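B., you asked whether I could sanity-check this one before it goes into the benchmark set. Here's the sequence:
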Amino acid sequence: MRLKVILPDQILVDEEVKGVVAEAEDGSLGLLPKHIDFVTALVPGIIAFQSAEGEEFLAVDGGILVKCAADVLISTRKAVRSRDLGGLSRTVQEEFEALDEGERKTRSILAKLEADFTRHFLEMRLSG
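And here's what the prediction gave me:
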C-alpha cells in the first residue's frame, strides 16, 4: 500500500507501507492494503505507519484521509515526521511555541495597523 502525505508546500511522505493507524473524528482507525475505500476527516494527533525501516510517526494538525485502492492519501496543513515518538512530542512542542511567537508578532502588528487606521480616520473626521 502506498502512503502519500501532502502538505501545502511539499510531499512529506511518498512510500510503500504495510499499514497506517490514524485518528479520525469518530475514533481511531487502522488501514491495511485490502481495507475498503473511504474518505474521513482527521483530527490533530499522531499517525503511525509501518515503513520498510520500521514503525514511524507523524504529528498532524488534522486533515483529510482518502483510502482508494492501494493508496492512502493524507492532506494536511502541517505535519512533523519522526521514528521516535518521544522526540516527536518535543519537536511538536517546539513547533507550537514558534507558532505562538509568530501569532503574537502578527497580533501586535495588526493592533498597530488598527490603531493607525483609527487615528487617521478620527483626524479626517475632525478636520472635515
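One thing to flag: Strands lie at 2-6, 11-16, 20-24, 27-31, 38-51, 54-68, 71-75, 79-82. Otherwise nothing jumped out at me.
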